[in-house]
Amino acid sequence: MKRRLLRGSLAPPENDSRSLLDAQRRDLPGEATMRRYRDDDEVDVCVVGAGAGGSVLAQRLARRGWSVVVLEAGPFWHPDRDWVSDEAGSHHLYWTERRVIGGTDPVELGKNNSGRGVGGSMVHFAGYVPRFHPSDFCTRTLDGVGADWPLRYPELAAHYERVELELPVAGQHWPWGDPHDYPHAPHPVSQAAQVVWRGAERLGIRMRVGPVAIVNGTFGNRPHCIYRGFCLQGCKVGAKASPLVTHLPDALAHGAEIRADCMASRVVLDSSGRASGVSYFARGELAERRQRARLVALACYSIETPRLLLNSAAPGFPGGLCNNEDQVGRYVMVQGATQSAGRFPDELRMYKGPPPEVSSEDFYETDPGRGFARGFSIQTVSPLPIGWAEHVAAEGHWGRGLREYMRDYNHWTTVGVLNEFLPQAENRVTLADDRDAHGLPVARFDHGLGENDRANQEYSGRIARHILEAAGAQDVLTIRRYAHLIGGARMGTAPDHSVVDRWQRTWAVENLYIADGSVCPTQGSANPALTIMALASRLAEHLAGRPPAA
Amino acid sequence: MPEIRLGEHLPNLRADHRPPHPSWLPRQRRGTTAQMIGRYPDYDVMENASSWDRATREVVEARLRPPSRMRFFGPSEEPTMRALCDTLLAQDRDPKVPVSEMVDSDLAEGKEDGFRYADMPPDETTWRLVLAGMDGLARRADWPDFAAASEPLREEVVGRFAAAELAAETLGGLNPERAFLVCMRWVLSAFYSHPWAWNEIGFGGPAYPRGYMRMSGVGLLEPHERPGATSEDPVGLAREWDE
Ligand SMILES: Cc1cc2nc3c(=O)[nH]c(=O)nc-3n(C[C@H](O)[C@H](O)[C@H](O)COP(=O)(O)OP(=O)(O)OC[C@H]3O[C@@H](n4cnc5c(N)ncnc54)[C@H](O)[C@@H]3O)c2cc1C
Ligand code: SF4
Question: How is chain B split into domains, by residue range?
Fold first, then answer.
């Protein structure tokens, strides 16, 4: 399985996105000449959501000659015009329509974890793209917690490799999980991240540079990173991966239609109980429309996919589509994402360089000595001023104290952890009483932490602090937060505990598939985007029937 | 004067856990900062504006235009809103970043952040209840309203608000801890989106298409960055505070 790659020189098979891009403009090439279908054309597949999962699926299937329509609630981005190199000015990239949050430990949504628009959440994701470990697929068997997946790591390995070539991923040799190399060399390490590295080294914690989905070398017309630090505001340069540059150009070139500004409202069934299409609201039109399709794939992510199913109640499915076993919306997970910042005598200027820099998975798997199951990863991050203000305020500072810490911004560096929180049935998405502009009930997400989660959070917070202190930090400020979403329509071996089977097909409707992060039964402590893409790649191969000619 | 390298100005490192009076800070010599204080007296981020892409420049420059009149908050709420934002951010003299107007304009346009706590009303309602609550607390201390109250009283009230010590009834039944976080989320994202705040903290600002070159090596500056003030720098401390 281990394959040595030649740095910066290998091209991915069956994906020409990198050369289709325009070297001077950031628009998605092919938008003007894009094939357009009519609502009553019965297309081979209607994909809902043009994010990480939906885009990979659309690209793969279009490439095999399927007729593809992708409905996307958000806009078709024109990055030169629509994106800015500015925190507050990037509000429109996020899913900012209302959702209700509850439970004992509510999770703030919006800019923290969900995107809206062609390219999905990866448009403003940080760019870390580690793989899951082989152990993540069987935590129930290995550790007695979480759930086993209905597939194992080796089934996904080839898709990990393929997607890593397509993004492409830059980083050092990866010693953890299934050890592997990356196609592009590691990026230079920023001043701020070097300090974290030094602290970790003194404690004997291994750090590695990357892995990040940021071009570092020759890759078609994709530009090199200019180290400007605005990855979470959308990469105006085009160096950081998102489906907008990695998969959708190729999808359009193969006849897929991306229908932006179209909010899916319901999956429609025919009288035999098969999906016959998707109802949606196009922006600026009052009447609901309906796209016909032979197969429907939902890829709206962990909050909106369950919401869409619950909003699709139909005869035979009174409590929401695919929800007769009361499984839709359950087992939604977030990762604990506590961030600690350390203060140093010299200026570190953490705004320079991409926020994702160096990381460690030394604490990823269960260590019985720690007193809890599973573990966490460590990654540097670098908040910009508004993010830094939220960090300072989290310790209770306001007024003059807050301004004093804020003025000290350039002397700080930040390290974050990602805790694997365990799946719980009661951490779930339901429908709220609030309604959106189309009159559709919005999602409510209830979330609470378990004992194991809290123990993990405590322990990892101490490690982050030790790293900073070992590096010589004079003061430490910590913010407890969450990141990433996963689960909500998980896969399993039977309908009584899952929504989809091992091929991501819903148990209830034979031609309805789910192709986003909501199918994952556990989350590991790796960031999820690469795994979501690899799963969509595997699903596409299953649907279309053959692997690419490598 | 606190020793900057040692971080003697940081509340956590001080015996009383309180920040020093801002009069220790250098006065801004270039560009503008809120209250004309900051740690980068010779840095004006706007001098880099010609290196920014047009879309970004328009967004940032718009923040420097005179603020529009308040539309969301009514005439009776306006002074309370100003006084609350000033206290939350210690903007005790001109020039001030017009945070209340910035928040007002986003609220008027119906901007949302993508979530509402199940036990909280929409942010618009939270703001109105908080302002009414601040006025109520000032009146209890025999001031006509929050804006007319003395600075120590305002700081005391906001301090109790921040420490989640206010009873829910004083805020129209709101969960006080969450209400404080809502207010902070709005005012912080307004204040720290303003170029005057970037000057004060030495943030590089937008960086496209130019980007950064000097990444690896502690203390390396780009040609357009300016070093921070050091404690040896005797020039132009904001002395008039004491005058
Ligand atoms: C600030 C931030 C940082 C992150 N950093 C990282 C990171 O470093 N590494 C990492 O791996 N992951 C990161 N993530 C998470 C990662 O981006 C997501 O896990 C991933 O993009 C999810 O993929 P998806 O296909 O499931 O959904 P998405 O990519 O979110 O795509 C879903 C799409 O569906 C659309 N949609 C939703 N409902 C409807 C509807 N009813 N009709 C039509 N369209 C709809 C949405 O608009 C969206 O475009 C980050 C996320 C955020 C927000
Ligand atoms: S740091 Fe690099 S990858 Fe991130 S936004 Fe800037 S150019 Fe893009």
Answer: 11-63+194-242, 78-191
